[in-house]
Write a structure and sequence with these properties.
- With about 260 residues, the chain is mainly alpha-helical.
- The protein folds into 3 domains: about 130 residues; about 90 residues, Helix Hairpins, CATH 1.10.287.70; about 35 residues, no CATH class.
- About 65% of the residues lie in helices and about 0% in strands.
- The protein contains 11 helices and 2 strands; from the N terminus they run αααααααααααββ.
- Strands 1-2 form a two-stranded antiparallel ribbon.
- The longest helix is centred in the C-terminal third of the chain and has 26 residues.
- The protein is flat and about 65 Å long.
Length: about 260
């Protein structure tokens, strides 16, 4: 059993090529399941969809238990916001066949793990020069996309009248983008008090995410390289000396543009 634990620890926490491929495969699984759950959120969940949900829930539960088993600080893992999101998703997937109502929007919370994973970030920084150069913009973009998907699915599940539309997800996405950008065409509205409060939430959070994305795109790009003297990790791509302490830097780069 200890040998099996060491294998899992190497896959989840290691830095070798095999471990990186394993973690990228898990991220790909996350992305595929999120797209599937979002695209089927408005459909009646018969035996096939319920069975797939149950199977995905079991797989994600095994992944969660494996991460917890190999973690050095299990208490810290349990109190992370993304762990709580995972537990909500697992519960919604495993309990859905036995419950009434559509819990599809809860599964999209797993999208938070697509980028907010320490080891994924570490792998991308090592393997992708593009990610190293545009990390802030990539993360801000994914944060915005996750918010749009979660919000659109919540509108689809809780507020949209499915009997009066032939394109339910398109309508929910359209409403989300119109509200998020404060365009407010008004052809699709949420007239209930709860819908109005939800619209306010979308506008406030959406504008903040848009501003963050704009800052990441138009502000001067920085690269991550830890200064050996003071520990500063964000520097200009062509920096030779640390702006904080003046220490000598040795940033790997193909040259500034």
């Amino acid at each position: 059993m200890e040998e099996f634990k060491q294998v899992l620890r190497r896959l989840y926490l290691g830095s070798g090529a095999e471990a990186r491929r394993f973690r990228y495969a898990l991220i790909l699984f996350d992305a595929v399941t999120i797209v599937f759950f979002v695209s089927t959120a408005h459909l009646p969940h018969g035996p096939w969809l319920s069975g797939f949900s149950l199977l995905a829930g079991v797989f994600i539960l095994c992944d969660f238990l494996a991460r917890l088993w190999v973690a050095k600080d299990k208490r810290e893992i349990l109190f992370r916001v993304y762990t709580i999101a995972d537990l909500i998703v697992i519960a919604s997937l495993l309990l859905e066949p036995f419950m009434e109502g559509n819990l599809a929007f809860l599964r999209v919370l797993r999208g938070l793990r697509l980028i907010h994973s320490y080891h994924l970030l570490r792998d991308l920084r090592r393997d992708s020069r593009f990610f190293r150069t545009h990390e802030d913009a990539v993360i801000a973009t994914i944060n915005l996309l996750v918010f749009v998907f979660v919000t659109s699915t919540a509108v689809l599940v809780f507020f949209l009248d499915l009997e009066n539309t032939e394109t339910p997800y398109v309508d929910s996405l359209y409403f989300t983008m119109a509200t998020l950008t404060t365009t407010g065409f008004g052809d699709i509205t949420l007239p209930t008090p709860g819908g109005k409060l939800f619209s306010v939430f979308v506008m406030v959070v959406g504008v903040a995410l848009f501003v963050r994305l704009a800052q990441a795109i138009f502000s001067p790009q920085k690269v991550r390289h830890k200064c050996k003297e003071c520990g500063l990790v964000r520097h200009d791509p062509d920096a030779v000396h640390c702006k904080h302490c003046g220490g000598l830097l040795n940033i790997e780069t193909d040259g500034a543009t």
